Amino acid sequence: MKALIIGGSGFVGYYLTDHLLHDCGWSVSITKLGNESIEENNVNIYNLDILDKKSIVTLLKEVRPDYIFHLAAQSSVLLSWKNPALTVDVNIKGSVNVLDAVRELDYKPHILLIGSGEEYGHIQPDEIPIKESNHIRPGNIYAATKACQNMIGNIYANAYQMDIIMVRAFNHIGPKQSPIFVVADFCKQVAEIEKGLQEPVIRVGNLSAKRDFTDVRDVVRAYSLLIQKGKAGEVYNVGSGISVSINKILQMILSYSSMDIKILQDKNKLRPVDVPIIEADVSKLLKVINWTRKYALDLTIQDTLEYWRGC
Ligand code: A2R
């Protein structure tokens, strides 16, 4: 099988590449932006900016993938507040470019579009755990762009009978994640405190928010199964089904350090609008794929902390 990972040099792309190559035995092509680097040798690497539709068409005609994983995105909620236009361009216009380039092909590859649990936005207490059929009320720019991407994915799937499967991915975490995301940020700070590079004070944002965290290595296994087994035009939650407060995550991370670390709230880390609780109902997912988590939360946190200690 031939897979193409668009936006493959990011956090998820690294683990998805490894999984498709070594667990699935597929041939893998990856796209990256010109300025990024990729460590893996056994893949075909292409430079691609998804804002340039012609280059996507050219690439697809050359690679002719069976499976397309569309990971390319402006993936940070925080950055989406600071640069909404870029987020809209990449996540909506870029995704339309990808879908429209695939529409022009003379065959129908399977496509996985990655949306977000953030699309649900302000979830009411009686809506937890949240089902795919729930209202979506995006609470930030990133979430709105992902909701739009998935709506357009559904339209393309129905209008052109394209094999597009959509996911709403809840928070995924693990080693190598950018420290703009909360778990990586906390682990990096603790590792730097341990090395004496930062005073023994950890700077935090909103600790009360509850999120559904899954190890990225489990998430990519779900993606590879879903692109094969999911139904075209359908959206699937990918998450653990359990929400944990950021404060609990912080306490877990601190418990793995022998340092005496003070906690300080930093207003730069607070988002303009925060969504208090996000937790997935994964029953629809589990009806189509045989998947369970291999990495418990404490193991992921220990691995992530070890990663930052080694940096
Ligand atoms: O922003 P950069 O320089 O880190 O590059 C990101 C890349 N990307 C693009 N690729 C092609 N054309 C563009 N115009 C463009 N803009 C950004 O997509 C990065 O290398 C990749 C996305 O990777 P990450 O930001 O590390 O996201 P992650 O955590 O791998 O998430 C994968 C997907 C995304 O759609 C997220 O929104 C979703 O899962 O949660």
Provide an overview of this structure.
With 311 residues, the chain is α/β, with parallel strands linked by helices. The chain is 41% helix and 17% strand. The protein contains ten helices and 13 strands. It has helices at 11-24, 53-63, 77-82, 84-103, 141-160, 182-194, 216-229, 246-255, 283-288, 297-309; strands spanning 2-6, 27-32, 44-47, 67-70, 110-116, 163-169, 172-173, 201-204, 210-211, 214-215, 235-238, 244-245, 262-265. α1 crosses α7 (216-229), α4 runs parallel beside α5 and α6 (182-194) packs parallel to α8 (246-255). The chain is globular, with a radius of gyration of 19 Å. Ligand A2R binds next to α1, α4 and β5.
Looking at CATH, which topology of the largest domain would you report?
A: Rossmann fold
How far apart, in Å, are the first and last alpha carbons?
35 Å
CATH class of the largest domain: Alpha Beta
Give the C-alpha Rg: 19 Å
Low-confidence stretches: none
Principal-axis shape equals globular
- Count of discrete structural domains: 2
Number of strands: 13
Tell me briefly what this model is.
With 311 residues, the chain is α/β, with parallel strands linked by helices. It is built from ten helices and 13 strands.
